[in-house]
Write a structure and sequence with these properties.
The complex is a heterodimer. Chain A is α+β, with helices and mostly antiparallel strands. Chain A has 3 domains: 84 residues, no CATH class; 114 residues, Butyryl-CoA Dehydrogenase, subunit A, domain 2, CATH 2.40.110; 138 residues, Up-down Bundle (Butyryl-CoA Dehydrogenase, subunit A, domain 3). Chain A is built from 13 helices and 10 strands. In chain A, strand 9 and strand 10 form a beta hairpin. By secondary structure, chain B is an alpha+beta fold. In chain B, the strands form 3 sheets. Chain B has a 4-stranded mixed β-sheet with strand order 1-4-5-8, with helices on one face. Chain B has a 4-stranded antiparallel β-sheet with strand order 2-3-7-6, with helices on one face. In chain B, strands 9-10 form a two-stranded antiparallel ribbon. The chains are: A alpha+beta, B alpha+beta.
């Protein structure tokens, strides 16, 4: 057990800290998280790239800083910006999902065309994966692209498309080979959101806000070269980066920040003669969550060490999305409970606390438990890949069995 | 930066695991726990041969001078094998108590005997955590009076280290006049617990350190119980997964049903981060003194909650078989139950964690 990063990293940490101290007055406020970055956020992003504090390992030829990958340096940068409560580099689906995909599987021309403006916040992307009939079973997607006059012609519908309203471009999974097996007929297209035939409808959620959209395609014409990977390889292309999304949803620093906010709330919020934290039942729940956040923090350090040794993350990594999303939800739930009747206030009500953020979080985090691979899909993955448990029988066998049971008298049907 | 077990620690883990797989199969555990005195001399000798009694004894007294993380690794394996041998009090808490608060003479007298296995000392500090049935021990004029409940590693102890109500530790011979030692029967036959009734029993005090040493014993004890819970939980998850991969119903392996698969996934998902929490808590005991007591509380309370869930869920995955004595799953179930309650159940330990952070006034 060695928790020191070593002297050369201590020097690096001092450099990062000195940079933040000298430049933090240029940073946009943390609340500035619009999909289309403000000019201040764009300038900050450019400064961070110049110093290697974001886009650190992306080659200079594509607008990055061009450093050799170093997990601990990246970790130190994240830690120091979080500690100073200064926003780090831009984080959006273009940067987190599309850029890594292009780096891995894009053509040289695509990399030169798209990576730099994406990193610099000039081009905003949205992701067109999920469809009404393709959620957990993403490969069941039906949006089609047939070829006409050397162009793809896209028809269909996407859902859960965040930032579609603001996006310049979309990276989108479509079915180009309708007769191929489910996973084999998909292609990964990129096209402008200004192309004729695209309609974006905001998707209002239980929070009262439209954090997502539905996107409808009617004869949307896409030039043949705007494809990443080969035709029919889209499933493979998309899977190359799905792991990045699950990683984004399980950040232990974010959990620690939520817990600290909860502790502050419970110390400030008055309850009768005392504070919320003086109530033994609420306090007991708080300490239980604190223990669980600590467990996830050290689990994160274990995953970091595994990757430093070049070992796979194993079970420690497989459980992160399921556990972190659940834990974040429980933190918000306790905040609402600690507020008692005040916990119901929302929509800018008088006496509302923190702009209704805890209620919004409580609802939105339920969305995160469902999105990015539902809790139930995560449990399948943990059981089948992590514990090597037997898979579900193939679909054909189930439908045979279903036919057989349908013919049986009702009272004889078995159940698991 | 390397979070996890060192190569030496992995070798230690594997050596203990191999030794217990050989000497302590479930049939042996069953045979021992059906006797009046369930301690296994055979496993105790094997543990002795591995040098485990001297792990935490400083080198100057003939021990190995190892860390609490090393001891936690051993605890995990002992629980995995449900080994009916003394460990927590005799091989962990006693060396720490004597090293940190023992006089020169006490150390010189006892520590080499602990290393060699000639002497075993039980520990009774429960009343510094929570008083039940009006128990409590007072010390005056060199004599102890009152009752100490839940003396750990009770059976066969040559002496006991006992905390008085002021938190000072005392050494008292098991055969001292004025001491009546009464065995308590618990759910978990693999570990022994007793009650000490003092009526003017002569005792040797350890250092008057304002409760510092007993605080260290609480922290170390909680980490070791958490590690024990981790090993027992690991065994129960593995057994559930194995069983679900063999048992067929409705023409399918039951492990292919999502209802069963998800029970196993939930156990694994909640259990896995406990490894890192326990390792860090053990590491902090020696290396991060400012965090040690708090993170020991977290490890104890959190593993208590997680493994209660694992214990009942693994039993359910085994169906009716899990409920029988035939496959012996209940040995681990009971070990987890013991680990949860001893040295403070989760609620008690969380209240202490809150007090440590200034969130409540200490009781």
């Amino acid at each position: 057990m060695d928790l020191e990063y070593g002297p050369e990293y201590d020097v690096f940490r001092k450099q990062v800290r000195a940079f933040i101290e000298a430049h933090s007055h240029l940073a946009p406020p943390s609340s500035d998280r619009a999909a289309r970055p403000s000019s201040k956020a764009v300038e900050w992003q450019k400064l961070l790239i110049e110093h290697g504090y974001t886009a650190r390992t992306i080659p200079q030829a594509y607008g990055g800083y061009g450093a050799e990958p170093d997990i601990l340096q990246s970790r130190i940068i994240a830690e120091e910006f979080a500690r100073a409560r200064v926003p780090g580099g831009l984080s959006n689906q273009g940067i987190s999902m599309f850029v890594p995909t292009l780096l891995e599987l894009g053509t040289e021309e695509q990399k030169r065309r798209w990576i730099e403006p994406t990193l610099k916040g000039d081009v905003v992307w949205c992701q067109g994966y999920s469809e009404p009939g393709a959620g957990s079973d993403l490969a069941n997607l039906k949006t089609s692209a047939h070829i006409e006059n050397d162009e793809f012609v896209v028809n269909g519908q996407k859902i859960w498309t965040s930032t579609a309203k603001q996006a310049d471009m979309i990276f989108c999974l479509v079915r180009t080979e309708p007769d191929a097996p489910k996973h084999g007929g998909i292609s990964y297209l990129i096209f402008s959101m200004d192309t004729p035939g695209i309609e974006v409808r905001p998707l209002k959620t239980m929070t009262g806000h439209a954090e997502f959209n539905e996107v409808f395609f009617t004869d949307v014409r896409v030039p043949m070269h705007q494809i990443v990977g080969q035709r029919g390889q889209g499933w493979f292309v998309a899977n190359a980066t799905l792991g990045h999304e699950r990683g984004m949803l399980g950040d232990p620093d974010a959990l620690e920040n939520r817990l600290e906010a909860l502790i502050a709330l419970m110390q400030e919020e008055r309850l009768g003669q005392g504070r919320a934290i003086d109530n033994p039942v609420l306090r007991d729940r708080l300490v239980a969550l604190q223990a669980e956040v600590a467990a996830m923090k050290y689990n994160g350090m274990r995953i970091l060490s595994n990757s430093l040794r070049g070992e796979p993350g194993g079970m420690a990594k497989l459980i992160v999305k399921l556990q972190s999303c659940e834990l974040a939800h429980q933190i918000s739930a306790l905040a609402i409970d600690a507020m008692g009747e005040l916990g119901i206030l929302y929509h800018h009500s008088p006496r509302e606390r923190e702009g209704g953020a805890w209620q919004w979080n409580y609802m939105f985090q339920l969305g995160l438990i469902i999105g990015g691979g539902t809790a139930q899909i995560q449990k399948n993955i943990i059981a089948e890949r992590g514990l090597e448990m037997p898979r579900e029988p193939k679909l054909a066998k189930i439908s045979d069995a279903a036919k057989a049971t349908a013919d049986m008298p009702r009272h004889k049907q078995g159940s698991a | 930066m390397d979070f996890g077990l060192s190569q030496d620690q992995q070798m230690l883990r594997d050596a203990v695991a191999r030794c217990l797989a050989d000497t302590c199969p479930l049939d042996h555990v069953r045979e021992c726990t059906e006797r009046d005195n369930p301690l296994s001399d055979k496993v105790l000798r094997a543990v002795q041969d591995l040098g485990i009694p001297g792990m935490l004894v400083p080198e100057e007294h003939g021990g190995l001078g190892m860390t609490l993380l090393d001891a936690a690794i051993v605890a995990e394996q002992l629980a995995y094998a449900v080994a009916p041998v003394p460990f927590l009090a005799s091989h962990v808490l006693t060396p720490i108590a004597l090293s940190e608060a023992g006089s020169k003479e006490q150390k010189a007298h006892w520590l080499p005997k602990i290393v060699s296995g000639e002497a075993r000392i039980g520990v009774a500090i429960s009343e510094t955590i929570e008083v039940r049935d009006g128990a409590g021990v007072s010390f005056a004029a060199g004599k102890l009076n009152g009752t100490a409940l839940f003396a750990l590693d009770f059976e066969g102890a040559d002496a006991f280290i006992v905390a008085d109500s002021g938190g000072r530790l005392h050494l008292v011979g098991a055969k001292a006049s004025g001491l009546k030692a009464i065995a308590l029967t618990t759910i978990d036959r693999t570990r022994s617990v007793g009650e000490l009734r003092f009526d003017g029993a002569e005792a040797e005090p350890l250092a008057d350190d304002g409760g510092a040493a007993v605080g260290r014993l609480r922290a170390a004890g909680r980490v070791i119980l958490a590690a024990d819970s981790l090993g027992a939980g690991q065994a129960m998850i593995e057994k559930a997964v194995d069983y679900a991969g063999q048992r067929e119903q409705f023409g399918r392996l039951i492990g292919s049903f999502q209802a069963v698969k998800h029970m196993c996934a939930e156990m694994a998902a909640r259990h896995e981060p406990c490894h890192s929490l326990v390792w860090y808590a053990a590491h902090a005991f020696d290396a991060v003194p400012t965090e040690a007591s708090l993170v020991a509380c977290h490890a104890k309370s959190h593993t208590g909650e997680v493994h209660r869930f694992v214990a009942r869920t693994s039993t359910e995955v085994h169906g009716g078989m899990g409920f029988t004595d035939l496959i012996g799953l209940h040995y681990w179930f009971k070990r987890i139950g013991f680990d949860r309650q001893v040295l403070g159940g989760p609620e008690t330990v969380r209240a202490e964690a809150a007090a440590l952070q200034g969130w409540i006034k200490a009781a």
